[in-house]
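Researcher: Going back to the complex we discussed earlier. I've cleaned up the inputs and rechecked each line, so this should be the final set. Can you rerun the prediction on the complete assembly and write out the structure?
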Amino acid sequence: MARVAFLVVAIIVFGMSNGHTQTPANGSLQVPARTLPVPTTVSPEMQAIIAAPISSTWNVFPKSIDEWKTMSAPTTGRGLPALRERFAVKSEAITVNGVQAYMVTPQTIPPENRNRLLVHVHGGCYVLNGGEAATSEAIYMAGFGHFKVLSVDYRRPPEHPYPAALDDAIAVWKGALKMAAPTNMAIFGTSAGGALTLSMVLRARQEKLPLPGAIAPGTPMSDLTGAGDSFATNFMIDNVLVGSDGRCDAMARLYANGHDLKDPMLSPVYGDMTGFPPAILTTGTRDLLLSNTVRVHRKLRQAGVVAELQVFEGQSHAHYMRDANAPETREAFEEIARFFDKHLGK
Amino acid sequence: MARVAFLVVAIIVFGMSNGHTQTPANGSLQVPARTLPVPTTVSPEMQAIIAAPISSTWNVFPKSIDEWKTMSAPTTGRGLPALRERFAVKSEAITVNGVQAYMVTPQTIPPENRNRLLVHVHGGCYVLNGGEAATSEAIYMAGFGHFKVLSVDYRRPPEHPYPAALDDAIAVWKGALKMAAPTNMAIFGTSAGGALTLSMVLRARQEKLPLPGAIAPGTPMSDLTGAGDSFATNFMIDNVLVGSDGRCDAMARLYANGHDLKDPMLSPVYGDMTGFPPAILTTGTRDLLLSNTVRVHRKLRQAGVVAELQVFEGQSHAHYMRDANAPETREAFEEIARFFDKHLGK
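Model: Rerun complete. Updated structure for the full complex:
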């Protein structure tokens, strides 16, 4: 019913003569408004996440450096003690090669993972989730995958713009190389952390450092230039990022600090991915970064890299790490863990 | 600009009090109208395909049996002689185990493919593409992959509803088992052919027939019940299928002929996929069947099956087999060919 009402409105606005949406000469497509039900094809836990209203702050962002500083301040994250308890993992603040980090360790580590180490770079549009909040995804991975995880608490803008985060991540990678064999290590992260995962490999190769045995970029912010079709198709459908030109993009520009957004160290989809380690990428059908995840997947495959893609039904940006009890969360992380197990040395 | 105009309209229609789209109590999401530009992130050839207006006949369908018969009549397809010439393949009408089929043979077959055979089941919502038109995708696969391809010209409704198509496909599979070792054979197809690929495996297992060494269901019509989130999210965005409740769904119901649409032989996403052969699935970010492709991928992975997913930027339903000269077409088919080469015996 609502769909019909909107179609009628669309016809009035565009002066169409019939019920079909028409395509203007430049090939752009006019899509009528519509009402999207919560899909029945996901778990009740995931339905609750999908049914959440769109972020009310997606296009509200600081206008002054002081407000940015407040936003980028370290936090303790949401419910981390309970999450650590649920997964029986501990988290210790450490300094690695001069950079703040956390070592997240499961109570029980199976023999095949004892000489393995994962390096984690957190998300949050390069600005958010400093401090202990950095470790949320690391706890999921340590818990579901039974790996030790070293989570980088990289410096953030406005005080520390690009390349501070990447410098810190690479410093931790150099430190990690003294803790485990590179072929026994993987790098992973989501959103900005997914982009940093990719740019770390580019940077490590540039510096002739050993590469990890595998990587898992989750819904990576792989293209800061605004390119990527799902910025348009999933606009106002992704209830997390909602749209480009919002808060997350403003944060990314704060990080970029005037550098060319097409630099592969900022937009790794433009990088040469030849020789990359095996990669597993994760996204969802409603993800604003669906395109920028699949574009990286294609680019890796074009370069002959072993690369797997998992796309979860109905999920918006990084929904796969929202609820530790959603079966889809377990599925996403266990799939990554299996991929690491397959490709890492022991 | 158009986006803003539509937001305002949406606010008026829904009586919203601010510029944010709101979520009603049932969790459904109201998405404003928008204009989608042609993505810059695909080849010029693919841009032309994406820029095409939405199908003008997507929700126009026959109202009488006679009209259906006309629609399901065999055709010679579009430009097949030129396509065969471009790929240097020949096509011969043959009868296999009593069923009409075509053997599509490349001029040059590399040694590793000489004992291999692919079985192809065409798409067309179970009604269209009978006769020589059946072979279009087979020609692409024979051309890009350098395999012999046996393409099933299965019977179609209204005269021959379910299970005629599946019966014919299985009869051809039994015939193929006399031509090559099952481990040297793969089954593939797109849309209805993707669903038939999956239901053939279910049926072969049921009949205790040998299974193929690999399968490639392309954007499969894996769920005829209407479930699948991208039916809503990609409504009016996919310029091929456009929406559910259109012509293709009417054809599928004609095929189902009153049978339970949730029967795995009609909606294979509901089937038990344990023991399935390695599978590679192909779809696009604008595909109306994006969800029903990724749901099959997840289901296969949950069953422990080797399953790879390729999702192409900006593509609607089966766009990957529209233009033999688009680099994305080559990429999609060569990826499938590599997957077959990896998993088939020689």
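Model: Worth noting: Chain A has a mean pLDDT of 93.
Researcher: Good, that matches what I expected from the previous run.
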